[in-house]
From TrEMBL:
It comes from Paraglaciecola arctica BSs20135. The keyword Acyltransferase applies. The keyword Acyltransferase applies. One of its GO terms (molecular function) is acyltransferase activity. Pfam families: CN_hydrolase. PANTHER family: FORMAMIDASE, NITRILASE C965.09-RELATED. Coiled coil: none annotated. This is Nitrilase/cyanide hydratase and apolipoprotein N-acyltransferase. GO terms for biological process: putrescine biosynthetic process from arginine. It comes from the Bacteria.
Length: 385
């Protein structure tokens, strides 16, 4: 079937103020603000109509990190939602009103197949008003992310939802291009974006809650240079949304200090909001130009991929799967952090990592445990249960 030409359109990247809420009722504060920012952006950029909106990670509920404000599982479940559900339906109404695709992420979602735990979930609602894509964050940072990764209960998850690369990293073919999504820490390594590229993604919607500690600003602009690389590698647009500022008693206002951006399929920065404040970025998406660019062989980052030599990297497990099966969700960050001792043992034992002077390979996991013990004894890291 012949495709229709995709006319250039505007994508909005929303950088909002986020309030960390205590329960599901508090979510409406964040939703109301998001909806008004979408209304503003759609109206302001009327000449080249808006067709796509990207929202940051945890835009509805916020999140707590190590220290006095750490979120344990019992805290998160108080603000967990279902997708679809009444909160996402509100965004569906706006999508239907304006003919939009809206992508948001970091939603604390309780999945009916696996009750009593939460997944860090991205969604895309379409112009029909319904959820047309859902993705569960794969690379959850063990030191910060308490949500369940599909990898944490891999066998059970695949049994329910499928285990193919298309099941785990879905891409939807739409009238504005092929859309996929990944979340925050997913973009720190090449694999998730590569999977989306393999599945045909032309636009990667990338919700994030990227902290200054993780390299948002110069001189270590890790957030920006890694995502430019992800876009360049896969010859796709990549739109990254971060918080503008935050309301939470345990965070500085600029905890996740903006720097939302739009990057094109060459890895070129199209627009950026390099400051910790609310903003709505607008970039023009030209899918036909991307498709023409991909017809060239010079610097085409897919046609020269030679996969056979890399198999061992992915057939030898690193972070172990199935550590948090049904009935045993991670209840506090320390449980996920503790698994990293096994990872250290493996990386050092096989010689991939070399220990610092004075340490033997088997000492590194003990060093991590001593740091965990100290953090818990001094109230820096909460204990399980």
């Amino acid at each position: 079937m012949a495709r229709k030409k995709v006319e250039p359109y505007t994508a909005l990247i929303i950088q909002p103020e986020v309030t960390v809420v205590d329960d599901r009722a508090g979510i409406q504060i964040n939703l109301d603000r998001i909806k008004n920012l979408i209304h503003f952006g759609v109206g302001y950029h009327w000449e080249i109509p808006v067709k796509l909106v990207i929202l940051p990670e945890y835009f509805m509920q916020g999140v707590g990190t190590p220290g006095k404000g750490e979120t344990k599982i019992k805290d998160a479940m108080k603000r967990a939602v279902t997708i679809p559900g009444p909160e996402i339906d509100q965004l569906g109404e706006i999508a239907k009103e304006y003919g939009l695709y809206i992508c948001g992420g970091g939603v604390v979602e309780e999945v009916k197949e696996f009750p009593g735990r939460w997944f860090n979930t991205n969604f895309i609602v379409g112009p029909c008003g319904n959820v047309v894509l859902k993705y569960h964050k794969w690379h959850i940072n063990a030191s910060l992310g308490l949500g369940t990764s599909p990898h944490d209960m891999f066998d059970e998850y695949c049994e329910h939802f499928g285990g193919s690369i298309k099941d785990l990293f879905p891409v939807i073919d739409t009238e504005i291009g092929k859309l996929g999504t990944m979340t925050c820490h997913d973009g720190c390594t090449p694999e998730v974006s590569r999977a989306l590229g393999y599945n045909g993604a032309e636009v990667i919607c990338h919700p994030g809650a990227i902290q200054e500690f993780e390299g948002v600003s110069e001189p270590w602009d890790f957030w920006k240079f890694t995502r430019r690389t992800r876009a360049h590698d896969n010859m796709c647009y990549l739109f990254g949304a971060n918080w503008g500022s935050v309301n939470y008693e345990y965070y500085p206002k600029a905890f996740c200090p903006g720097h939302s951006f739009g990057i094109d399929y060459k890895g070129v920065m199209m627009a950026e909001a390099p400051y910790p404040s609310e903003q709505v970025l607008a970039v023009t998406v030209d899918i036909e130009a991307l498709r023409h660019y991909r017809t060239k062989i010079n610097h085409n980052n897919w046609i020269d991929v030679r996969t056979e030599g890399f198999r061992e990297m992915y057939t030898n497990p690193i972070y172990p799967a199935n550590r948090f099966p049904s009935g045993k969700p991670p209840t506090a960050l320390v449980e996920k952090i503790t698994v990293c001792k096994e990872v250290f043992d493996d990386l050092y034992a096989r010689g991939q990592f070399t220990p610092p002077f004075g340490y033997e390979p088997e000492d590194i996991s003990e060093l991590l445990q001593s740091r965990i013990d100290y953090a818990q004894e001094t109230g820096r890291l909460k204990k399980s249960k």
